[in-house]
Amino acid sequence: MLQVKNVQKAFGENLVLRGVDIEVKKGDIVVILGPSGSGKTTLLRCLNFLERADGGSMDFDEIHTELKGASKAVVSKVRKKTAFVFQNYNLFQNKTALQNVMEGLTVARKTPKEEALARAKAALDKVGLSERYDYYPSQLSGGQQQRVGIARAIAVNPDVLLFDEPTSALDPELIGEVLAVMKKLAKEGATMIVVTHEMTFAQEVASKVIFMDGGVVVEQGSAEQIFTKPKEERTIQFLRRVLRDYDYII
Amino acid sequence: MQLDTQFMLTTFLHVLQGIPVTLTIVMVTLLVSAPLGFLMAVSKSGEGKIGRRIIAGYVSLIRGTPVVLQILFLYSLLPTALNYWIKEVLGLSYNIFTLNPIFYAYVVFILNTTAVLSEVFRSALSTVNKGQLEAALSIGMSAPQAYVRIIIPQALVSALPNLCNTTVNLLKSTSLAFMMTVKDITAIAKIDASFGYNYLEAYLVIFAVYIFLCSAVQGVFHLTERGAAAYKKPAVS
User: Fold this and answer.
1) What is the pLDDT of residue B237?
2) Is B150 in contact with A94 (Cβ distance < 8 A)?
3) One-character DSSP codes across B124-190
4) What tens digit of pLDDT does each residue of B50-75 get?
5) Most B CBs within 10 Å: which of A101, A107, A109, as the mutation test of the B interface?
6) Whole-structure pTM value
């Protein structure tokens, strides 16, 4: 369904992506792991044109485009087929939860107001926020804000959901509620690409794990394959580092 | 020393007629300067290098010179220049010297306030987190839609305190319009005072008038701020 090839991106002298290929099939839960600075967030942002790649191509259902020269029309098409969940939520501060979710429908997609309202309410209900329709982001906890962020993303019925470290900015006790929502979506068959540091989530939910380091894909495979029998030395080192946390209690 | 209260009362009544003139200058200036200043703020953060330089030059020229000097300069230059232009270039017979001097006041204060507001709006726009634009784009809004619905409303709220400052400063600067023979509050007081040298009384009267006007402006802004920033307040429930 979605395939990108040879994605390259540099910030000044700093090569962040050095030719990354990934493929996502309908219903896939792709989890991208890797140390910070490995380019995983940049890759995700390039998929949605929040960052413009320097090279590479994209095949997304009927869309075939170069990443660098993609026209405004193509960018807008791709954005309407995807939805992005940000690390720091990025909810519209001047809109209530309900308005945040409706905005993508009424403004960007010209959905009639009645229908948009129903869909927005359904999305908020799904993430467990039926009681918070009229709250402004500043009146919600981090976990609640991120769930609104997810509701805003799913309300537009995207083909692919992009999650950029959705739990990294959250207090530890709030992470669970967001992961629970994401698991629920995964079970319902949503296609997701998730950049995260939540190893348990990756192990339980991912249908495919991609390990990135230094701007390239080092290794990819099923969750079981990556976590129990990784082949590459760098993957082994990384997993040892992040999984070591379970060996002792602070 | 004794204050002539009778004189103060009649001057006060005279001065009241100057309030509409002062407020008209303020309103006209703001109505023209706000959109112009906003456009400048946007193009300053835009791509055009030449445009940015011109705007930066204009802003530093205006901010680097006293308003009094700008008034003296433009009031000496504009009428003669316009006269030459109308008579020699356009070949019309219109007598520019009969033009209401309030138009020169508009020019000076618009030039001034536009420069100030372009900075006010620029800093206000930069207070809105870049993530707001990204979020709007990511759900399929176009950049103009994102600006109109998400960025500008938030920028305006954070611009309110500075807008209040600008308006109060403008209101006070209009007292210099008397130098262009505009019959505003200050001009009326000075004329009244000059008959019997009651300058102290006249100035005391307009002191009060200006304090009242400025407080009213601040009050209006204060209420607007409270209403507009409702979304920033944390919930109690």
Assistant:
1) 44
2) yes
3) HHHHS-HHHHHHHHHTT--HHHHIIIIIHHHHHHHHHHHHHHHHHHHHHHGGGGGGGT---HHHHHH
4) 888 899 999 999 999 999 999 999 99
5) A107
6) 0.84
